[in-house]
Amino acid sequence: EVQLVESGGGLVQPGGSLKLSCAASGFAFSILGMSWARQAPGKGLEWVSGIYSDGSTYYADSVQGRFTISRDDAKNTVYLTMDSLKPEDTAVYYCTPQAQLNTQVRLDDGYWGQGTQVTVSS
Q1: Of 32, 41, 42, 40, the residue nearest 60 (C-alpha)
Q2: pLDDT tens digits along 59-104
């Protein structure tokens, strides 16, 4: 059974940082790409970042230069380090495995965790 457990969200002031984690099980983590996506209140799901098994990384323009995706295959975990956070980064953040990174993401397509809430507010 595929399981994805996101954690690390919380309330942070603008300009602050958070590191999200996604612990995965039930599939061959080390050979698959992994992506993070987010859903802001009242908006659709937005792809944020992805990482292939070879470590190559990709980012949405909205987070380029502020977010860093990484992975630890020994722990079956993917991370999203978020710096210089802005109020518009407020969203529920999800991770998902992807054989080929795909920016067209939907919560009713593929495997997703329960998400972790990130709130950026003063």
Answers
A1: 40
A2: 999 999 999 999 999 999 999 999 999 999 999 999 999 988 888 9
**With the C-alpha atoms ordered 24, 25, 27, 31, is the resulting torsion angle positive or negative?**
positive
Contacts of 52 (CB under 8 A, 6+ apart): 33, 101
**Which of 82, 62, 70 lies closest to 17, judged by CA?**
82
Residue 71 CB neighbours (<10 A): 21
What torsion, rounded to 10 degrees, do the Cα atoms 56, 119, 103, 79 define? 30
C-beta neighbour count of 91 within 10 angstroms:
22
pLDDT in tens, 33-53: 999 999 999 999 999 999 999
CB atoms closer than 10 angstroms to residue 19 = 13
CA dist., res. 7 & res. 16, Å (int): 17
